[in-house]
C-alpha cells in the first residue's frame, strides 16, 4: 500500500512540474523542443494541424496559455496553438533582415567579423547588453546586434 502511495505521488509530481515550469506571465519567449512540432488552429489535438515546424530551437513568442496548450506567434505575426510539452523555456533567436549580418568577436561594431549569418539562421541566445547579444550557432559563438535578432528583449 505504501509503495502505491509513493508511486502515485511521484506520478503526480511528474505531471505537475512540467506544466508549472512554463506557466509564466505572457507574453514570453520559448523555443521549439523537437525537430518536428505541430501547430494547430485551436488548443486541442481535435483541431486541424495548420503547420508542421521542422526546426528544433526556433524561437517563438508565447502570447496565451490555456491548460496544456500555448498560443504562439512567429516573427511575421502568424499565430497558432502548440502543446506545452513541445516548447522549451530555453532562449533562442532567429537572424532577421534582408541581408547577411556579421557575427563579431566582441560586442563592438569595430571588432573582427568572425562569420556572416544569413537571414533565417537559428541559434542559442546568450546574454544581451548595450545593443549586442551573445549568439551561438553550432560550435560558433560571437556577438550580433540585438536588432538583427528575433526572440530578444521584451516579448
From TrEMBL:
It holds the Pfam family SH3_4. The keyword Signal applies. It comes from the Bacteria. Residues 1-21 form the signal peptide. Keywords: Signal. Gene3D superfamilies: SH3 Domains. This is SH3b domain-containing protein.
